[in-house]
Amino acid sequence: MRLTQNSHSKLHTSISTDSYGFYDVRQQKTNRTIGQKRQPLYIMLLVSLILLGAIGTRLAVLQLWQGHIYRDKAENNRIRIVPKPPVRGNIFDRKGRVLASTRLTHAAYLWPIVVKQPDWPKNLKYLSQLLSIPEESIQSRIEQAGYNSPTLIRIARSLNPAQITALEEFKTELNGLEVDIETVRDYPNKAMGAHVLGYTGELNAEELKKRQAEGYRLGDIVGKMGVEKAYEQQLRGEWGGIQLEVDGAGKVMKVLGQKVGQPGKDVTLTLDLDAQRAAEAALGDRKGAIVAINPQTGGVLAMVSNPSFDPNVFSSQITPKIWKQVQSKGNPFVNRALRGFPPASTFKLVTATAGMESGKYPPNTILNTFAYLNVGGTAFGEWNRAGFGPMGYVRALAWSSNTFHGQIGRGVGGPTLIKWARLYGFGKATGIELDEEAPGLIADDAWKRKNYNWEWTDGDTVNMSIGQGFTQASPLQVAVMFAVPANGGYRVKPHFFDNNQDTNKWRTSLHLKPTTIKTLREGLRAVVAEGTGKALNVPNLPPVGGKSGTAEAPPGESHTWFGGFAPFDNPTIVVVAFGEHTGGGGGSTAGPMVKQVMEAYFKNNKR
Fold it and tell me: Distance (Å, rounded) from C-alpha 551 to C-alpha 473?
């Protein structure tokens, strides 16, 4: 039997049975051709759609997602950004006299994007010779910015006339070279106040990496030390710039826009230029430091350290020769006003305070003095090698008796003496704005066990009571100490900047007994009137109170100290002079330095 589909079927099928009775189903070709001729068209259409979709997707990526990248590249080929660093704020002394400002100079810039890569070796060699800068230094700056950078990169500052002329001639060969005017830091008083003012310099790669989040960029000039560093945020200002359209040769076609830079804010310090100048002259070529502060507010009136440096050298390229000259002076960047040294007999103010405030040795105490004190087998000698006989606090301060104050220190004990030393501010940083400050040292039992594996002894206490042994104090800390009896019992926080001059903001009461303050002041006045500080008992100064100190510093000569305040009845200035390995006595060597500063201060600040 055979079954056949009609002619309207898509497929002709025959069904039959074989010899075993199973159905045989076979597909057979038909003459049907409708729709087959359109198949290639459909395939071409599908392929076209796929290709168009791919192209459309790529165009979308290029235009929508990556469009800004290619627009920027195109713009970089025709737009030059000429950055204009801000004018840094000025620094003034308390009377408005300029301590740091800016001046105009010329700088050399490179525009990396317009220089062909094969030209760099030749150009770098020429620029290195002309500017006296290593090729590696210039190349490093270009690599840091990128060879396709559209921004001018500064490679040299403070160009001299010969360099400017040579660079202008070379511009015809190197399209990416520009010479432009910029401002650089200027210190009209040269080395005067260098350790206070500090200096400025360009951010290095490591510093830039740390400060990019703060808005700093390649080529930024920042404060590197002193007030310049402490008040960087106020002084720096904001960058400006000019956007120029240029042709393929780098020729300027037109100015597209300009952003005006914001100058930095001016800063007025508590520093007094007259006192600063006098302190510089008083210290002279000696190694050491002089500090002057207002004992009522803590404002620093003068701060000198020697050896010193001229901060103007950092406003131009530092060559190896210049750097060697600066360093040859012997650690010129160390601010000795903020470094610790044995305070010697100036520390006897603390010892006397501890004795009276403990109640064990009241102000009317009289003690016999000797040629030496024998403590634990060690002889602590009197400086005159004979003793002064019986004496009280006033005379003991006037003549700086070691055996009197040694007995006081041993009597009150190490913990009490250490407590009062720390209350006076020793053993920790004063908090002044300069980050070069060292905390000094007030040792105790725990410190000695850790560093020497030995317990604190009475000998250590006696040594501390006369400002020797482990004790270390900076001239600034010693000035803070002298301010306590000068202002009636307050520890001041020294500072350079204060908008509102709020006295209470900078003072902490030590809650001294009135009799303690009275006795200390009488003793310090007696030092100048009849004791070791007679050098300051002169008619052209108001009455002065003070204290001398001489610290043994083997194998070198002794260190010398003198600290004083005036006018005695209502002090407006404390001056501390320190001579490192100067030899001699504190009253005879450091005393005249204090006198010279006070004379200048009172001459220019009429009482």
Answer: 12
Q: What is the distance between the alpha carbons of residues 429 and 418, in angstroms, rounded to a whole number?
A: 16
Cβ neighbours of residue 352 under 8 Å, at least 6 residues apart?
393, 396, 397, 405, 408, 519, 520, 523
Angle (CA) 48 49 55, round 5°: 90
List C-alpha distances in Å: 112 to 121, 140, 151, 260: 13, 12, 8, 24
SS3 427: coil
> Which helix (H) or strand (E) segment is 486 a member of?
helix 475-487
Query: In 406-466, which ranges are E strands?
Result: none
Rounded to an integer, what distance in angstroms lies between the CA atom of residue 559 and that of residue 578? Answer: 7
Closest CA to 270 of 424, 428, 91: 91
The amino acid at residue 318 is I
- What pTM did the predictor assign? 0.81
Contact 492, 507 (CB under 8 A): yes
CA 387 to CA 370: how far, in whole Å?
Answer: 4
Among candidate residues 464, 137, 502, 126, the one with its CA nearest the CA of residue 297: 502
Chain center to CA of 469: 31
Q: Determine the Cα–Cα distance for residues 406 and 396; give it in Å rounded to an integer.
A: 11
DSSP structure string for 79-102: EEEEEEPPPPPPEE-TTS-EEEEE
Kind plus residue range of the DSSP H or E element containing 566: strand 559-566
pLDDT beneath 50, residues of the chain: 1-30, 73
Residue 88's Cβ-count burial label (10 Å; 0-12, 13-18, 19+) is buried
Exposure pattern of 432-471 as b/e (b: 16+ CB <10 Å)?
Answer: bbbebbbbbbbbbeeebeeeeeeebebbbbbbbbbbbbbb
Task: With beta carbons less than 8 A apart as the criterion, state whether 346 and 400 touch.
Answer: no
DSSP character at residue 235:
H
DSSP, residue by residue, 261-300 = PBPPPPEE-S--HHHHHHHHHHHTTSSEEEEEE-TTT-BE
Measured CA to CA, the distance from residue 601 to residue 593 in angstroms comes to 13
13 φψ region: left (φ > 0), alpha (ψ -120 to 50), beta (else)? beta
